[in-house]
Design a protein that fits this description.
10% strand, alpha/beta
Length: 377
């Protein structure tokens, strides 16, 4: 298959690697020509490390690199059967690229976006053939993270989602089909992991290192919310939260954090800038969390209850089937368990009681329960 990738950032080159590894001929384009060169040099280094670790053979590395070509303009995608866009999260810029692409590609070429939060229906609506447009959302880093959310729009041709689902399986991925709602499955359900962690710190209930430690020790999460925000990029995480909040017509459940906004404004973006909630400069010591069992229980129960409530609400709204909701959170953001089964384990009555107490304490719609939660046991 001939595949076009637009955007040679971390996601774009990662997706190119996945497609090329699976025998596709790949063309990579970026408006910044230097970025493509930088990305391909970086890819060569990555593959060399994989050869050194005996994860792939030297022959496989040569084959992958031979499968990737640099496109200097969008016209170079004329023979592509599938194009995946992975550029800046800006609807206007993305739409402009897709409408131009339609002038060069064949009638049967599938156009797709790797957006993590912009409506697939709105992106495809401007096209002459919106039925060929679909969301294909990989997770970072694309070669390592197994999950891919396949998101048909209201206008996508009925059989296309299944075709892309099967293609992703051929590429060795774990695909799930999601409804075109803000945040899709993972970015919608995961919002409280960050949002509630931020709220706890904003209220001086605990420190970032205590919240992280509580979620790792009691929940067995690989990373706490603040470590994870620093890894993703505080600015990127804030942008996704803001988009989901806006697209849900300012539902208080998804209200962004003022602390996170200030961190973004100060360019304290985490690892990529050397400082975020933690200091990553050379020689900097990570603060040690002051352990407090009762506080840790409170933090864990509050955050996990919010997450389980979101998963239950996604089930109620048919965002995806139960199996895909469980799979998405485990394979997309490395959660130790599926949230629906976790709710059963803790007890849905306990989750409901926790949320009811928060609702009564704060008098905020943020803590309202899914109507389905009360019925579950």
């Amino acid at each position: 298959m001939n595949v076009g990738i637009i955007g040679a950032g971390t996601m774009g080159i990662g997706i190119a690697q996945v497609a090329a590894t699976n025998g596709c001929k790949v063309w990579v384009y970026d408006a910044n020509a230097k970025q493509v060169e930088t990305a391909t040099v970086g890819l060569e280094k990555t593959l060399t490390k994989l050869v050194d670790k005996q994860k792939i053979s030297a022959e496989k590395m040569t084959e992958i690199l031979a499968n990737i070509s640099i496109a200097t303009e969008l016209k170079d995608f004329k023979d592509c059967e599938l194009i995946i866009e992975a550029i800046i999260e800006n609807k206007e810029i993305k739409t402009k690229v897709f409408t131009e692409l339609e002038n060069y590609v064949s009638e049967s070429c599938v156009l797709s976006s790797n957006t993590s939060s912009i409506s697939i229906t709105s992106l495809g609506a401007e096209l002459k053939k919106p039925e060929r447009f679909i969301g294909i959302h990989f997770f970072n880093p694309a070669p390592l993270m197994p999950l891919v959310e396949v998101i048909p729009s209201l206008l996508t041709e009925k059989t296309l989602a299944e075709k892309i689902y099967n293609l992703m399986k051929e590429w060795g991925k774990t695909p799930v089909i999601a409804k075109d709602i803000p945040g899709f499955i993972v970015n919608r359900i995961a919002r409280p992991y960050y949002g509630e962690g931020l709220r706890i710190v904003e209220e001086n209930i605990a420190t970032p290192e205590q919240v992280d430690d509580a979620m790792k020790t009691l929940g067995n999460f690989k990373m706490g919310p603040f470590e994870l925000m620093d890894l993703i990029g505080v600015d990127v995480n804030f942008a996704v939260t803001t988009t989901v909040y806006k697209d849900y017509f300012y539902d208080p459940k998804y209200k962004p954090s003022l602390l996170q906004q200030r961190m973004s404004e100060a360019k304290l973006h985490g690892r990529k800038t050397g400082k975020g909630f933690y200091d990553y400069s050379e020689g900097a010591e990570k603060p040690v969390a002051q352990k407090d069992n009762a506080l840790y229980q409170q933090i864990f129960l509050r955050i996990i209850s919010m997450l389980i409530n979101e998963a239950v609400e996604a089930k109620r709204l048919g965002v995806a089937n139960d199996e895909d909701i469980e799979l998405a959170m485990q394979k997309g953001v490395n959660y130790p368990k599926g949230l629906l089964s976790w709710g059963k384990e803790i007890g849905y009555a306990k989750i409901s009681e926790t949320l009811q107490n928060l609702y009564e304490e704060y008098q905020e719609e943020r803590y309202r329960q899914s109507p389905l939660l009360r019925k579950m046991n």
